[in-house]
Amino acid sequence: MLDGHRVLNLCLMEWDSRENVLQNRRLLRSAVRAKEFELLVIEQIHSDVIHTFRAMPAEPSKGDASATDRPGLLLGVQTADCVPILLVDPKKRAVAAIHAGWRGTLARIAQKSVGRMQFEFGTKPRNLLAAMGPAIGPCCYEVGTELVTKFTAQFADGAEYFDEPRCGDEPNPLQWLNMAPPGHQPPPKNVQLDLRKANRSQLLAAGLRPQNIFASNLCTACRTDLFFSYRKEGSESGRLLSVIGIK
Description:
The chain is α/β, with parallel strands linked by helices. It has two domains: 39-141 and 196-245, CNF1/YfiH-like putative cysteine hydrolases (4-Layer Sandwich), CATH 3.60.140; 148-193, no CATH class. Helix content is 23%, strand content 22%. It is built from six helices and twelve strands. The protein has helices spanning 18-31, 102-106, 109-121, 146-154, 195-205, 230-233, and strands at residues 38-41, 50-52, 65-68, 73-79, 83-89, 94-100, 129-132, 142-144, 162-163, 190-193, 213-215, 240-245. It has a six-stranded mixed beta sheet with strand order 2-3-6-5-7-11. The protein has a three-stranded mixed beta sheet with strand order 1-4-12, with no helix packed on it. The protein is globular, with a radius of gyration of 19 Å. The two termini are 33 Å apart.
């Protein structure tokens, strides 16, 4: 409860009661017609660690992606700006749930999750369907230029994930990335990162067909009337939960 109003926070937080969170999760499972499913949410650590589950684990698992081909498990990803990515292989009846912040994206967690599904379930990437949920957009996700260096060192198209708003006739703030002499222009202090574009690029590189990738264009930081945003709201932000499972 915040200021007397109920919020649909779906993660155990210090400011929210356990009873409220569990009730919210029951409401979610009811809304997606998965009352009988067991909800499996791993402890997210901004990594490239991927777990495959055939049953509910006895102890909580740490990582940022989970996959299963067993009916009755509802895989969940908690976010409040990071990109939630859900994968489904309708041929092999297998699913995966991925949490992709900038660290996980840099570590190629989306691409590696496709590879894990290939290894575990015999998935063919061209058969996969992918959905990316609401996340912070490039309009609001300002990061330091050191991330440009990190991403361009890992991805051939890494520079395309970044931009900086320009006004009037200001010079291109990313000019310092090319081989031209920078002249009197200092590097920009900050740039805008497009996490969805970066993860879409990974899914395409993994072999998914463009028409099989679906992405919400809603920005969590712009739309705090609908979503939670850690960047906008700080530690008092709740968490969204994206889920996928097999009947």
